[in-house]
Design brief:
about 375 residues; alpha+beta; Rossmann fold; Dna Ligase, domain 1; D-amino Acid Aminotransferase, Chain A, domain 1; 3 domains; 10 helices; about 25% strand; globular; binds adenosine-5'-diphosphate; binds magnesium ion
């Protein structure tokens, strides 16, 4: 069997650079060497791509030689520059991008991959962009009849013109307590729980440091339930899991620092709740044009028992202890088999898009 030449792409310019390296390290260890010929591609904080030594862990790749993926379809060739001329630096059959956050899962990288013609794991340009934008996501969820908490969008220019007017609009539309979040961000960066009117303007200003759009959302006292998703059509849902954090909410510290954050797999839910949250999760990913993998996150309202759809992540955390692989493990799909399936889906999606007509033919 000829091996699949796989580019594992990680790192990146976002605040989730380290998280990405942790995910890539776990994937690298689990990829079957008899099946895959892996090229490590580390994106530095400066945006340069470096090719690592496959014998070393991904974290060591950032010092590797600088390579490029040309934005022109061809032989899926990586390039490097030698004395001012481009040379081939290897070919790839598929790319597994595991870059979280802006520039990695927001559709921009997917645009480059589309132009280069290399098949890649995960959602395409549109699906990635939609899933990254919490505010556009909510509009589409609401239009699809999916349950979302009331929200008000505030733009950073509006905050600059008059923060008190923006704050007043958020207060009258959403009330307190509320969550204030940058629309395009992850890992809880720039997110505030606001419980007093005085805390609102500083929270809006801080969230606006991370994105030009800020989402103000009604806060609920809730359990956090997550469902892992796999496939294109059909999309399959895993058993649900639950996150129990001992902090005020599931913030950056709880996600990556706090050892006391518990992941319950499966989540203690009754059969009706389980069926309904899995169904909502599949519909959520389909609504945002997701493909390959995703993780839908819900807030289960402690007072009413309702599920509120919070977000769908197109590139969820992927270390072996992360929720996404653990949910699949509990659903009967082990980590290496999960990777194989994602790569198959990438090749399948590419074959489908290649089969589309690119010329007008009179029928
Ligand atoms: N409306 C809300 N009500 C209650 N808790 C919330 C709400 N919005 C966010 N949170 C809390 O903040 C955390 C991070 O918010 P989230 O929207 O998931 O952003 P991120 O993309 O950074 O994960 C959630 O996991 C949850 O603990
Ligand atoms: Mg979240």
């Amino acid at each position: 069997m000829t091996k699949i030449r796989l580019g594992l792409l990680f790192g990146g310019r976002s605040v989730e650079h380290e998280v990405s390296i942790a995910s890539a390290t776990a994937i690298h260890e689990a990829l079957d060497p008899a099946r895959y010929d892996v090229t490590l591609l580390a994106v530095g904080r400066d945006g340069q791509w470096h090719r690592g030594n496959p014998g070393l862990p991904p974290a060591a790749s950032l010092d590797g030689e600088v390579v490029n993926l040309p934005a022109s379809a061809g032989e899926h060739r990586l390039l490097r520059w030698e004395h001012g001329a481009a040379e081939s630096a290897g070919q790839l059959d598929v790319i597994f991008p595991i870059l979280h956050g802006r520039g990695g899962e927001d559709g921009s990288l997917q645009g480059l991959l589309e132009l280069s013609g290399v098949p890649y794991v995960g959602s395409g340009v549109l699906g990635s962009a939609l899933q990254m934008d919490k505010e556009v996501s909510k509009r589409l969820f609401a239009a699809a009849g999916l349950p979302v908490l009331a929200w008000v969008l505030v733009r950073s220019r509006e905050i600059a013109r008059g923060a008190d007017v923006a704050a007043e609009r958020a207060l009258s539309g959403v009330g307190l307590p509320m969550f204030v979040k940058p629309a395009n961000q992850g890992s809880s960066v720039g997110i505030h729980k606001v419980t007093t009117p005085e805390a609102l303007i500083p929270a809006l200003r801080d969230a606006a440091r991370y994105d030009a759009k800020v989402l103000c959302e009604r806060a609920v006292d809730a359990r956090e339930i997550e469902v892992a998703l796999l496939g294109i059509d059909p999309i399959e849902a895993s058993v649900p899991g639950e996150i129990r954090s001992h902090r005020e909410f599931y913030d950056y510290e709880a996600k990556y620092v706090d050892e006391d954050t518990e992941l319950l797999v499966p989540a203690p839910l009754d059969p009706d709740q389980t069926a309904s949250v899995r169904d909502l999760a599949v519909r959520a990913m389909a609504t945002l044009e997701g493909a390959g993998l995703g993780r839908a996150d819900f807030l289960l309202d402690r007072s009413t028992g309702e599920f509120w759809l919070n977000e769908v992540n197109s590139l969820p955390g992927f270390t072996e202890v992360s929720m996404f692989p653990r949910l699949w493990e509990a659903s009967g799909l082990a980590y290496p088999a999960l990777l194989d399936r994602l790569i198959e889906l990438a090749l399948e999606r590419h074959r489908e898009s290649e089969s589309l007509e690119t010329l007008y033919r009179r029928s």
